[in-house]
Amino acid sequence: xxxxxxxxxxxxxxxxxxxxxxxxxxxxxxxxxxxxxxxxxxxxxxxxxxxxxxxxxxxxxxxxxxxxxxxxxxxxxxxxxxxxxxxxxxxxxxxxxxxxxxxxxxxxxxxxxxxxxxxxxxxxxxxxxxxxxxxxxxxxxxxxxxxxxxxxxxxxxxxxxxxxxxxxxxxxxxxxxxxxxxxxxxxxxxxxxxxxxxxxxxxxxxxxxxxxxxxxxxxxxxxxxxxxxxxxxxxxxxxxxxxxxxxxxxxxxxxxxxxxxxxxxxxxxxxxxxxxxxxxxxxxxxxxxxxxxxxxxxxxxxxxxxxxxxxxxxxxxxxxxxxxxxxxxxxxxxxxxxxxxxxxxxxxxxxxxxxxxxxxxxxxxxxxxxxxxxxxxxxxxxxxxxxxxxxxxxxxxxxxxxxxxxxxxxxxxxxxxxxxxxxxxxxxxxxxxxxxxxxxxxxxxxxxxxxxxxxxxxxxxxxxxxxxxxxxxxxxxxxxxxxxxxxxxxxxxxxxxxxxxxxxxxxxxxxxxxxxxxxxxxxxxxxxxxxxxxxxxxxxxxxxxxxxxxxxxxxxxxxxxxxxxxxxxxxxxxxxxxxxxxxxxxxxxxxxxxxxxxxxxxxxxxxxxxxxxxxxxxxxxxxxxxxxxxxxxxxxxxxxxxxxxxxxxxxxxxxxxxxxxxxxxxxxxxxxxxxxxxxxxxxxxxxxxx
Length: 690
Prior knowledge:
By secondary structure, the protein is α/β, with parallel strands linked by helices. Helix 1 packs across helix 12 and helix 4 packs across helix 12.
């Protein structure tokens, strides 16, 4: 049997609108109750119109809020303009109450990114609708972290359905919210169904609210069909979070009276009697009966309200249909890495006069390893910009597993150098919320083999946020991680899977191969207004220290680097394989062959112009990388070069790569990593091609 936990449960009105006990003092304000009732009616009429528009092919699939209006209206009416909403897909009511226009909501469901423009300044920082279930909870924690770091009395509200509480993202969000005591309110709309899966199959615990207890903060239940109860408990939760008393989880017990979406048919899995009973408890009639019983509402006002709301909805429909289709060029421009883009989040930085701890930098010269260059760049970036923060597992006192963040905590304090719980998914989602608030988070994932837990947030959110909001919100974050084999490490500590991320539009992927490039590229990555994956070859961390000046000079994020001039053959590589590639070039020189060596460095976007110019000159090309062969970045480079210089080639382009097998444990890894002899063999084949 599930362990029963005593949790608060609030209900003021019975289904027929009768008082069940004393009301809070604010409930005597009948003007307020009238406004709340009006907004619920408006939401329902809008909802009905949206469904009708979908049925007639004028918008796409739509998620109705039927029967759940009280929850959203209460939340939206109580949030302050400076607060931030991080919604899920069934949040029409709260969005309307916050100030999102009805035509914007129709544009979104009508397949147009302009639906997330949010022209009302009061909602400029609100997140757009989130489709991947529960992921928004971690973004909310990131926003709340920014509020707490800056000492602002602001609150984040994030919503989800009962099904989302089964997701790891939701549970990791609860954990970090409780651990850091963040100013965030989680509202779970428990409408009893996750599409066709009933609540009883979703979770074995008696309540969903009790999940908060395990995370170390307050959870409670409220009758989601009772506007008075929802309003009261949301109000208390917001004030609790706003005044530093930590997060709250509200489980609102409601019922999804309609289908999951307009693509669903709930009669396939729900009994008609169950739905009929639920209609007897729905929120609008309940509040209406109470107001009629109190003598503050009557039939003629109801009729006038319906006429008013229908006119507002129709006006929104007219505006939506008059909007036409957005210019494709705007969307395509937003989707590319070309040029420097505006960074709208910068206005959100340091809003409450917050100033992080800063260390005055003095220019230093010296000899630095690649690892030390990363540390040097982080020090300079944090000294130059108080919004740069570093977070991850063991990055604080310990200075990171490789000591890349050593000394940062001493220089900049615990608010800017943050040790996190051991949860990579959490880190991937958290930094999106931080970045949306104008911070510039640099997150460390300890090894590339651990990065896959972050992929949903990198692929589904960080890379898409600019397009999703048409530039209203961007994601200036850097995710650093060591990559590659050659350090005698256990399984999953030797991955080179840069190609997975290079395939994702909206992500930059960088792989430095020298101290100078690590320093200059990392500084530029931190400046970039969009997400950057910064992959650091572990085999090079302490190899061949080189002279480096801490002058703050940034390197371009879309350029290759020619390391050695040549005229007979072009050798293209990146990361740790640059070492063997340069050694092969020296060996070729002893044979009288002039090899040009190019460090790609910027995997995405590729500097194809530099590569093309070199191969046009030499007529031959060998590409070297430590990652497996199939669908590697080398294949993309080769295909692009064939498209550009096919007729100038003197021989086929060859690739020298790791085999298509997982990286072996260290006793065999020297056979896995492409070696100098492998490169020379490919060069010989290319040079002697007839």
